[in-house]
């Protein structure tokens, strides 16, 4: 009978190293769900079989027919061994077998208990012989439910017909019930494991199963009736059965050949298309010529589906002399991958080798046990000169059968195609690498830098180009020769790479000139990176037995308003950065390009030097932006925002003066000012009987100040404000700039009872691991996502995901930038807790905030009075 002979693949394919921990957790969750499902199926099967045996179909037997049971068990066993495997999709393997034939005959010759025991013994015996121990309990429950439901339906048909002896309609109906029950159990398993299968696909599979089951049952029923009525007719029945078997086998071969050709074509197209879209990678300046990690995972998944394997492992050497990269599709590998020489790979030679634990000994058995499998197909991927990789297929998902000759042939053909693709990829990568890289340092050259930088600038439009110039290189060349100068260039390139990290695009333009692209940095961060880079590059260079003293200038350029309007161009940024480097030679060794550098630097200098005076003269003030609860529309708190009205410059944007104050080391003074004003305001509200919390923004420098928690405790004590009415908002990038210093301070603040919120969530690291590390109570969705919810489905999906993630971690979720009614309604429908934005109120000075609160209180009271009057009338 056609039925699902194995559990569905209980894990998603491995996607990347960064997701390995999450994937392992998903696999464990799937395994737990399937264990629960197995227990339910087994329990229900035992209870059903016992109930039917005791209450409905009591045991009736004749001693002279003792041989019927063993013969039925042998028939079931033979029918399963002659089964035909059909691979459906996504790791689901179905087996078309002939077990309907002994089952339909069993209705006439044996009682329910004998047929049930024969089927159970044949099935479990085969599983144990195959050492498929992980699925015995599930399949035992399925066996029990198949036979129990078959006899139950058969006797219901007999009861409807008013007959007391078995008839062919009842036997036929009961026989068709068994594969239908098995199919429903398998589809339920797919659902339990949260795999997707369309309803139409499930219905088509069920229909085909019933058709094949009907044919098998009809053949068995017809053969039994003919032999029962005509004693010499058994040769004809055997001939019909053999003919039907031949048709099945022919159909199976044709279907397998077609699917194998499709799979081979799919894999070849995946490799070819991936190679066509190769680009220069920013990481380390390498060239990606061929499939990336995601492409190889897709290829592994396709091979796994076609072979109906529990797991397919690709071990690939994607770069010359590089370590093997492991890509897994299906069940995750056990902890600890292969270390050193592996006997399965060594014994494979150049052909596909099949290893079974039942036949293996010594190192081979140990290697199979290390992988946690009973059977493996292993084939190397070789070029003319070296081993390029290895393909492994583990444990066919069929309940009865292992890998066959067709699987071996298909894997060998696929391995040949993949080896050719890998070899071509390496040649193409070499050619592209030479075209886009500097031969001395291995970094990008100017064309390569243009290509790498173009896409990030188009997507983010906030890139910055750093230009670095070694100013003593020509002197070294003149004094010691070009070889010594080249050594210094290589050493400088390594220092820049170490300073910026492996994923920042870095190029050697010419001589001692380098360029790097920074994306997603604020202006002060770029300056800090440039300063750190200059310091490292200016350290002495040990060259052989000499120590060469040198100096470096760093210039950087970010897009100006004119650049953005005209369209951002990497060549323009490079030119601007070059101007900044030239300006750096005038004194400052780190300069940023500005259209009018003198005026801008003068304004910045004045702001920093006049900051303390501005505090004393009251030029700085604190405004407050209310936050309301979405379910109740009650005011929960406010965010404190600093404002500066300069006597000469007028209103200065906080985005301009806060970074300048921070860079000058005065951010602690500013934070103390905002904190003190905010606590004064909270104390006044408490005296008026109101409990309104206030949120104060923290800087990365505050989180590096070990005395900051003590200062906060003193301020709370001085104004007698409970810590739960104070919230500190911190950015992801601020914390992760130096987590070793920031985390202890955050934990100390949290222990005091102060509420901690992650500001601008979604624009930085925004990962589950990141949130779980921090002792935070709230997440604030960045306003860019909230503003785009009404027009961008992607932003809507991001907001919904952040709400769900925050609630799953027990955090309060705050949405910034709520400016429209539709956004507020969408957030409320998602379950977002708190809203903040212009729809509710702009940031207000103290007097205007008091008027706003009074007006809101009056409106609330008015609405309450109207509601009471309505009830009274």
UniProtKB/TrEMBL annotation:
Taxonomic lineage from the root: Bacteria, Bacillati, Actinomycetota, Actinomycetes, Pseudonocardiales
InterPro entries: Cyclic-di-GMP_PDE-like, EAL_dom, EAL_sf, GAF, GAF-like_dom_sf, GGDEF_dom, Nucleotide_cyclase, Rev_trsase/Diguanyl_cyclase
GGDEF domain ranges (all copies): 461-595
Entry-linked SMART domains: EAL, GAF, GGDEF
Protein name in the entry: EAL domain-containing protein
Originating organism: Amycolatopsis pithecellobii
GO MF term list: cyclic-guanylate-specific phosphodiesterase activity
Keywords: Membrane, Transmembrane, Transmembrane helix
Ranges of residues in domain EAL: 604-857
Alphabetical list of CDD domains matching this protein: EAL (cd01948), GGDEF (cd01949)
Keyword Membrane among UniProt keywords: yes
Superkingdom of the source species: Bacteria
PROSITE patterns per the UniProt record, alphabetical: EAL (PS50883), GGDEF (PS50887)
Stretches that traverse the bilayer: 36-58, 104-129, 136-158, 170-193, 205-227
Pfam families, A to Z: EAL, GAF, GGDEF
Positions of the UniProt region annotated as Disordered: 1-26
């Amino acid at each position: 009978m056609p039925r699902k002979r194995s559990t569905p693949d209980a894990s998603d394919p491995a996607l990347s190293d960064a997701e390995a921990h999450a994937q392992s957790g998903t696999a464990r969750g799937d395994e737990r769900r399937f264990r629960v499902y197995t227990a339910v199926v087994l329990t229900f099967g035992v209870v059903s079989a016992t109930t039917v045996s005791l209450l409905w179909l009591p045991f009736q037997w004749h001693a002279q027919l003792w041989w019927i049971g063993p013969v039925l068990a042998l028939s079931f066993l033979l029918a399963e061994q002659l089964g035909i495997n059909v691979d459906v999709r996504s790791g689901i393997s179905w087996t078309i077998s002939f077990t309907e034939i002994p089952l339909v005959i069993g209705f006439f010759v044996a009682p329910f208990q004998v047929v049930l025991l024969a089927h159970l013994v044949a099935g479990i015996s085969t599983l144990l012989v195959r050492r498929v121990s992980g699925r015995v309990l599930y399949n035992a429950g399925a066996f029990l439910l198949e036979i129990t439901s078959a006899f139950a339906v058969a006797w219901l048909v007999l009861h409807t017909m008013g007959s007391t002896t078995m008839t062919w309609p009842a036997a036929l109906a009961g026989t068709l019930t068994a594969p239908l029950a098995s199919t429903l159990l398998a589809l339920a398993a797919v659902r339990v494991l949260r795999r997707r299968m369309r309803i139409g696909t499930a219905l088509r599979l069920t229909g085909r199963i019933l058709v094949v089951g009907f044919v098998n049952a009809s053949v068995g029923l017809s053969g039994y009736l003919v032999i029962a009525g005509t004693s010499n007719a058994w040769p004809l029945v055997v001939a019909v059965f053999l003919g039907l078997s031949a048709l099945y086998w022919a159909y199976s071969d044709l279907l397998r050949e077609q699917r194998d050709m499709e799979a081979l074509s799919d894999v070849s197209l995946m490799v070819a298309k991936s190679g066509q879209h190769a680009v220069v990678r920013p990481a380390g300046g390498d060239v990606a010529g061929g499939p990336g990690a995601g492409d190889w995972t897709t290829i592994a998944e396709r091979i796994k589906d076609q072979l109906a394997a529990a797991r397919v492992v690709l071990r690939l050497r994607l770069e010359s002399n590089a370590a093997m990269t492991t890509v897994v599709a299906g069940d995750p590998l056990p902890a600890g991958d292969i270390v050193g020489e592996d006997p399965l790979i060594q014994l494979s030679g150049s052909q596909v080798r099949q290893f079974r634990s039942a036949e293996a000994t010594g190192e081979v058995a140990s290697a199979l046990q290390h992988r946690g499998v009973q059977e493996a197909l292993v084939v190397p991927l070789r070029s003319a000169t070296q081993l390029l990789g290895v393909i492994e297929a583990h444990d066919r998902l069929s309940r009865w059968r292992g890998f066959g000759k067709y699987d071996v042939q298909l894997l060998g053909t696929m391995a040949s195609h993949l080896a050719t693709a890998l070899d071509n990829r390496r040649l193409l990568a070499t050619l592209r690498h030479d075209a886009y890289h500097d031969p001395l340092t291995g970094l990008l050259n100017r064309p390569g830098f243009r290509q790498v930088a173009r896409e990030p600038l188009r997507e983010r439009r906030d890139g910055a180009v750093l230009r670095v110039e070694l100013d003593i290189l020509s002197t070294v060349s003149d004094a010691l020769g070009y070889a010594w100068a080249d050594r210094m260039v290589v050493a400088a390139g390594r220092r820049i790479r170490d300073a910026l990290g492996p994923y920042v695009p870095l190029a050697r333009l010419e001589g001692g000139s380098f360029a790097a692209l920074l994306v997603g940095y604020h202006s002060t961060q770029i300056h800090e990176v440039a300063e750190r880079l200059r310091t490292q590059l200016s350290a002495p260079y040990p060259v052989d037995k000499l120590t060469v003293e040198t100096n470096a200038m760093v210039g950087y350029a970010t897009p100006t308003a004119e650049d953005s309007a005209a369209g951002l161009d990497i060549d323009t940024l490079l030119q601007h950065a070059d101007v900044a480097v030239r300006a750096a030679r005038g004194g400052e060794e780190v300069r940023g390009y500005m259209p009018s550098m003198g005026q801008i630097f003068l304004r910045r200098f004045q702001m920093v030097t006049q900051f303390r005076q501005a505090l004393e003269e009251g030029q700085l003030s604190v405004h407050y932006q209310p936050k309301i609860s979405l379910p109740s529309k009650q005011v929960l708190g406010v965010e404190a925002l600093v404002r500066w009205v300069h006597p000469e410059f007028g209103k200065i944007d906080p985005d301009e003066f806060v970074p300048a104050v921070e860079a000058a080391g005065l951010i602690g003074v500013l934070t103390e000012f905002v904190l003190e004003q905010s606590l004064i305001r909270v104390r006044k509200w408490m005296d008026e009987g109101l409990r309104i919390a206030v949120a104060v923004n923290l800087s990365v420098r505050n989180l590096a100040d070990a005395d900051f928690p003590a200062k906060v405790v003193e301020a709370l004590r001085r104004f007698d404000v409970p810590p739960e009415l104070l919230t500190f908002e911190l950015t992801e990038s601020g914390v992760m700039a130096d987590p070793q210093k920031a985390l202890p301070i955050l934990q100390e603040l949290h222990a005091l009872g102060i509420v901690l919120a992650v500001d601008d969530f979604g624009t930085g690291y925004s990962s589950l691991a990141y949130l779980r590390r921090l002792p935070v109570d709230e997440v604030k969705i960045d306003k860019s996502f909230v503003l785009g919810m009404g027009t961008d489905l992607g932003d809507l999906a991001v907001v919904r995901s952040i709400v769900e993630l925050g609630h799953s971690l027990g955090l309060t979720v705050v949405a910034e930038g709520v400016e429209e009614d539709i956004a507020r309604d969408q957030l409320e429908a998602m379950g977002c807790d708190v809203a903040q934005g212009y729809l509710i109120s702009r940031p207000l000075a103290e007097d205007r905030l008091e008027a706003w609160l009074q007006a809101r209180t009056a409106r609330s009271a008015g609405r309450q009075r109207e509601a009471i009057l309505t009830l009274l009338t």
